[in-house]
Amino acid sequence: MAAHRFATTLTTAVSLIAPFLGLATACSASEGAAAAAAPTLDAASGGVKALPAGDTVGAPGVGDSDFPQDGNGGYDVDHYGLKLSYDPASKRLEGSAAIRARAVQDLTAFDLDLHGLTVSRVTVNGAVAQFGRREDELTVTAPGRIKSGARFDVTVDYAGVPDPVRNYAGLGTYGFIATTDGSFVTCEPNGAKTWFPSNDHPSDKATYDFKITVPEGLTAIANGEMDAQPKTSDGRTTFAWREKHPMATYLATMTTGKFEVRTGTSDLGIPVYAAVDPAFHGSLDNLYTASAKITDYWTTMFGPYPFSSTGGVVDNYSAGYALENQTKPIYGGFTPDTGIIAHELAHQWFGDSVSITRWKDLWLNEGFATYAEWLWSEHRGGQTADALFRSYYANNLDPIWNVPPGRAQRTDLFNGSVYTRGAMTLHAVRREIGDATFFALLKKWTAAHRYGNATTEEFVALAEHMSGKKLDGLFDAWLYQPRRPAPVT
Ligand code: TRP
Ligand code: ZN
């Protein structure tokens, strides 16, 4: 997980952000082998599927073929209210989560995802509830039957030293990571469970409010905007943040530590919050200015900014990667150049506002954000998107040709193909349908699925609808075949 992942085979100013967490492998046949027992997201176009009638126990997974244990069946979360207190000296986190949900089947028991940490008390609709732990599942027995369609409230009190996910499926270390002065919290794909009990899958988005208490002198940064001025008493400061737009669990953050902060508004009037660890003092103004300018630029390319503020955070934890945390991308231990900022801010539209329904569609996030890097390069007078496409295409030995980007695999989720060949897929579509239709398609896509979830099939259908062309052959060759597609004119 070092900076070498930013290396690129092209001599270009554009940073290739694909983390290359694993070596490229040929199309794997293991898909489906690990499929969840009952529900599945892969047949349906989205949403949480109810179990067969008569069963009142929510499934332990939402039915993602890559991550069968992630998320849960039987309910849909509307809101997480998280009260958290973190002490960097002891590394201890104390939390109280208030979860508002809606049952999608009759429920007598259901799961939340939670990794480590000790649970002291659970309530359902105000009544104390029995609970059990098994692996990363917190199973709650409802005090009475929750009727399908009913709203219900769950509270979970918990504490402990968070344990990040380490090397699960070769994905590196992610989740709640202790730093010398606080915490660096980057949760893709399933690290939210390391700091709050959740339905930890992007198919179930919810709104959030955060009350985060840290020792006086430290700053706590979460998603959205501050609800109130920080309040200090007894040597501890509480920060209140609210994300009022639906957010996937992996985009939630509670980054804490020493930070220098600059706030303001972009030229187009979007509030901006930029923060850097004091070790990156010299980066604050650039981070602020570039984040504002690039957010404004993307509104002209992708449509209205979906959220209520933009910005970014640079922490001095040397992750060597960035994550598109909603409203506040985070950069781990390096000064981001504008290519990476362009990538993370493009994710606000592609990934954060329009979210995937299942992980195998990850190219809808990473291919689009990588293509945005190419558009940014062109905009600032660097290589054009077309030139970048052609230089990647020319390398017929690139391992991306062995890896179909449209089926991201659990053990190799962030393969370079999902990024680069995903971006190339968009360029191939652009060449086929023309610039005017292509850029209208991007705006229509972000508008049609704003704050929601989508699938590759829906993108293909929209592209065909808007262009009036049959594009299944093109998408099949670019997304699903383990070989280099025919040249694009
Ligand atoms: N989505 C991130 C990006 O492309 C990269 C990433 C993958 C990541 N897995 C992660 C970041 C885990 C943080 C934690 O910008
Ligand atoms: Zn990305």
Describe it for me?
The protein is an alpha+beta fold and 489 residues long. Helix content is 22%, strand content 28%. The longest helix has 19 residues, at 284-302. It is globular and about 65 Å long. Bound molecules: tryptophan and zinc ion. Residues 17, 19, 174, 186, 188, 321-324, 343-344, 366, 414 line the site of tryptophan.
List the helices and strands and how they pair.
Elements: E1 75-87, E2 92-103, E3 107-113, E4 118-124, E5 127-128, E6 130-134, E7 137-146, E8 151-160, E9 165-166, E10 173-178, E11 183-186, E12 206-215, E13 219-221, E14 225-226, E15 231-233, E16 236-247, E17 255-257, E18 260-265, E19 271-276, H1 284-302, E20 310-315, E21 322-323, E22 330-332, H2 338-346, E23 355-356, H3 363-379, H4 385-394, H5 416-433, H6 435-448, E24 453-454, H7 456-467, H8 472-480
Parallel strand pairs: 1-12, 19-20, 20-22, 23-24
Antiparallel strand pairs: 1-2, 2-8, 3-7, 4-5, 4-8, 6-7, 9-10, 10-11, 12-16, 13-17, 14-16, 15-16, 18-19, 21-22
Helix pairs in contact: 1-2, 2-3, 3-5, 4-5, 5-6, 5-8, 6-7
The structure holds tryptophan and zinc ion.
The site of tryptophan has 13 residues, from strand 21 and helix 2.
